[in-house]
Amino acid sequence: MLIVRDYSVILPLKPREMQRLLSKINREGPNGCWVWTGSAVSGYGRITLRGQTWSVHRLVFEAFVRHVKRREVVDHLCGNGLCCNPEHLQAIVQAINIERWRTARGNVHWRHKITHCRRGHPLSGDNLAWRRGRKGRKYRVCRICENNRKAEDERRRKAVEEAVRFWAEVAAKERARRRIGEKGASRGITAVGNKEELPPGEMPEPMEGSGPQGARRPVP
Ligand SMILES: [Zn+2]
Ligand SMILES: [Zn+2]
What we know:
The chain has helices at 15-23, 56-64, 98-102, 143-187, 211-214; strands spanning 25-26, 35-36, 40-41, 44-49, 52-55, 72-76, 89-93, 128-132, 138-142. With 220 residues, the chain is of the alpha+beta class.
């Protein structure tokens, strides 16, 4: 079962947490899937950050796309529970609208009894739009929801770009860190000012008297 929790308490992720998250994702999965390679429970990826366990695809969605509202779940369009490609993830309202099916009883076609979209916007006035589906059949759509869907598609597309950019940055920093490490080792200095890029347990030694880290504070 997925853990339902307020993910905003951990977002935005710190660079190192983001790095850990992304380092366990294989972007070369089938069908464009970004496959989680870390631990998984019931077919869904899990990661432990700040001492708590988080659902990976939901974390990725909230980190890159948007906050997931109450009653919404993050669904896989690709059907692969380990996938965390934002383009394959969608936040949907889990509970189906039972009211819809109740109205199926009666003389009027159940569809005509629907006066509001599933999110509660009125299917009338300016908000009502008609679209033509397959076989030329007309159907009603909620403009608010349609616009939201478009905006979300756009956000999801941007999310992928952002994730890819972040990846590249992390990789570049990692390379730079290694270079500094090598240089530092040969010159006998440590990489001050690159704390963020250092792996855990490799805190830089402040150089004496240089910069805020090395400056001696007067003892009260
Ligand atoms: Zn996928
Ligand atoms: Zn709507």
